[in-house]
């Protein structure tokens, strides 16, 4: 899935066995997310696929269990984990852990965790990847913007300023190459 975009993302995709995700669906959702980020001239340089078999306690995202998994199986970052569900409260269908919100959980830096039941999964994944690449938890009130608090099928646009922040921050953090 290499891209002609001038900014290239090298990423690890982790499908948890028995999570309800199939390889085909995970790849399609990732491709949908990257099609949205393409508006910022960000494409895929390389996507490494990992099918991970683990005890069932690792299938549902929770911070303590995810930290344990990340310590037991360190992976190149950024990484997307396709998991069954979340045990965190409040419960989010997908969660991004960038550098700014990982101080108390450094093992999870530059990761996204997305549940099998996520509504609009390609859009939600693009939204969470944008959080990681921008290293920001900020949301937008702008109609149609990808970074609105709640994702929807009509919210896929990114502003020029958001694209610039995403590219410059991700390059500075070593998450994007050229």
The count of domains is 1
Provide the low-confidence segments as ranges. none
Main sheet attributes: strand count, strand direction, barrel closure: 6 strands, mixed
Rg for CA atoms: 15 Å
Q: Indicate the CATH topology.
A: Collagenase (Catalytic Domain)
Determine the strand fraction and express it as a percent band. 15-25%
Q: Give the beta-strand count.
A: 8
Give me the CATH superfamily.
Collagenase (Catalytic Domain)
Distance between the termini: 16 Å
Kindly report the average pLDDT value.
96
Query: What is the H-and-E element order?
Result: EHEEHEEEEHHE
Number of helices: 4
Mass-distribution shape: globular
Instruction: Quickly give the CATH architecture.
Output: 3-Layer(aba) Sandwich
Helical content, roughly? 25-40%
CATH class: Alpha Beta
Helix-strand category: alpha/beta
Word description of this protein:
The protein is α/β, with parallel strands linked by helices and 178 residues long. The chain has a single domain (7-171), classed as 3-Layer(aba) Sandwich (Collagenase (Catalytic Domain)), CATH 3.40.390. It is built from four helices and eight strands, in the order E-H-E-E-H-E-E-E-E-H-H-E. The protein has helices at 23-37, 63-72, 121-134, 160-172; strands spanning 7-16, 42-52, 60-61, 79-83, 85-86, 94-97, 111-115, 176-177. The strands form two sheets. Strands 1, 2, 4, 6, 7 and 8 form a six-stranded mixed β-sheet that branches. A two-stranded parallel ribbon has the order 3-5. The protein is globular, with a radius of gyration of 15 Å.
């Amino acid at each position: 899935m290499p891209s002609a975009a001038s900014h290239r993302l090298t990423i690890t995709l982790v499908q948890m066995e028995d999570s309800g995700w199939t390889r085909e669906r995970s790849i399609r959702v990732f491709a949908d997310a990257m099609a949205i980020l393409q508006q910022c001239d960000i494409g895929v340089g390389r996507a490494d696929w990992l099918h991970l078999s683990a005890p069932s306690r690792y299938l549902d995202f929770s911070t303590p269990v995810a930290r344990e998994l990340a310590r037991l199986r360190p992976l190149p970052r950024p990484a997307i984990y396709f998991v069954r569900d979340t045990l965190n409260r409040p419960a989010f269908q997908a969660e991004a852990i960038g550098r700014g919100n990982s101080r108390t959980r450094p093992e999870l830096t530059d990761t996204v965790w997305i549940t099998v039941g996520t509504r609009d999964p390609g859009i939600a994944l693009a939204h969470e990847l944008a959080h990681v690449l921008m290293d920001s938890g900020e949301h937008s009130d702008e109609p149609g913007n990808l970074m609105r608090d709640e994702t929807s099928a009509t919210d896929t646009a990114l502003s020029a300023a958001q694209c610039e922040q995403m590219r410059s921050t991700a390059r500075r953090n070593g998450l994007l190459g050229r």
